């Protein structure tokens, strides 16, 4: 099943709705509306049907996933019963980030990208990558969805993209084995780890991980494909287009760590939550740094993954500069 989040205009402001995506018919099905109609046909009052549907299909995808199996079971029943009565053409919807993750974690697992990235910056990959599946944590509050406009940060001269897979956690994970963790993955989406490369370079020298070099934006979407539909994760074809021109291709084969191993490591002495997103790291050829292409205002970026779809983003003009730190004098 393909699941997404859209924004719907109302007299009281925008409302977030969970939808099933029908790519064959180019439509989305409002799950709450379909469920209300299904329950009313079975004798429920409108008030009772609305109360139940809003509990199963809230605006938060993370909250819905946290309900466990009943979320997907009810979604399938609602779509099967009343899809035609709760549909909207895909071309007319306003997409939001496919998941509203409590936490974003981003790893580094694709061998080709690791090699090419380090060749570009003139360094050897650290052997620590072979010891543990490391990751950083990013803010969930700059996540954007399909067809969003992302301002180019005013503080960077090298704005970049990173084509990745985003894995959605399906249940609470604590001290899991890799096999257990693999079964805890709910679905997969496209993840774009936007990067301000010049600021990232400064931050990594401090040794505390990326901050402003990454947290300006995370693209997530266009929707989530559940694990039963996506099938294998190691044979996905991936491509990058900018302004309609294809710049690179890659695939999801050859990783140091599997998704199950990465999630198992994250769960050690920690409680990973339903709806959390953890990413694969960049696929080989999946960043501008590897092919010598920066993002500029006006660019339209398309990241495509087979069996998932295409995540499109427009790069907008920078926001107004209000303040930036001045270099301090050396005091040691």
UniProtKB/TrEMBL annotation:
<dbReference type="InterPro" id="IPR011234">
    <property type="entry name" value="Fumarylacetoacetase-like_C"/>
</dbReference>
<protein>
    <submittedName>
        <fullName>2-keto-4-pentenoate hydratase/2-oxohepta-3-ene-1,7-dioic acid hydratase in catechol pathway</fullName>
    </submittedName>
</protein>
<feature type="domain" description="Fumarylacetoacetase-like C-terminal">
    <location>
        <begin position="103"/>
        <end position="315"/>
    </location>
</feature>
<dbReference type="GO" id="GO:0003824">
    <property type="term" value="F:catalytic activity"/>
</dbReference>
<dbReference type="Pfam" id="PF01557">
    <property type="entry name" value="FAA_hydrolase"/>
</dbReference>
<dbReference type="InterPro" id="IPR036663">
    <property type="entry name" value="Fumarylacetoacetase_C_sf"/>
</dbReference>
């Amino acid at each position: 099943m393909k699941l997404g989040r859209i924004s719907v205009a109302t007299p009281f402001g925008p409302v977030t709705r969970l939808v099933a995506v029908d790519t064959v018919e180019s439509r989305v099905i409002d799950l709450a509306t379909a469920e209300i109609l299904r329950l009313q046909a079975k004798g429920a009052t409108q008030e009772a049907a609305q109360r139940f549907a809003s509990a199963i299909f809230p605006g938060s995808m993370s909250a819905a996933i946290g309900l466990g199996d009943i979320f997907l079971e009810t979604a399938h029943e609602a779509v099967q019963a009343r899809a035609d009565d709760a549909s909207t053409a895909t071309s007319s919807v306003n997409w939001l980030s496919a998941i509203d993750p409590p936490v974003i974690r981003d790893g580094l697992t694709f061998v080709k990208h690791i090699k090419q990235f380090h060749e570009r910056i003139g360094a050897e990959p650290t052997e620590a990558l072979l010891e543990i599946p490391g990751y950083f944590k990013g803010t969930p509050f700059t996540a954007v969805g399909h067809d969003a406009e992302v301002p180019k940060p005013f503080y960077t001269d090298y704005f970049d993209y990173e084509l990745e897979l985003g894995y959605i956690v399906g249940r609470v994970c604590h001290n899991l084995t890799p096999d257990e963790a693999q079964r805890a993955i709910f679905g997969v989406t496209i993840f774009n780890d936007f990067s301000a490369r010049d600021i990232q370079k400064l931050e990594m020298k401090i040794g505390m991980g990326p901050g402003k070099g990454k947290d300006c934006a995370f693209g997530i979407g266009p929707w989530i494909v559940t694990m039963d539909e996506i099938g294998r994760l190691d044979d996905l074809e991936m491509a990058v287009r900018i302004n309609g021109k294809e710049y690179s291709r890659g695939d999801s084969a050859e990783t140091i760590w599997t998704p199950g191993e990465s999630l198992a490591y994250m769960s050690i002495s920690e409680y990973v939550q339903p709806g959390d997103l953890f990413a694969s790291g960049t696929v080989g050829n999946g960043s501008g740094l590897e092919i010598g292409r920066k993002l500029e205002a006006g660019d339209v970026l398309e990241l495509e993954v087979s069996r998932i779809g295409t995540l499109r983003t427009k790069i907008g003009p920078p926001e107004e500069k209000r303040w930036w730190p001045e270099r301090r004098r050396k005091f040691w």
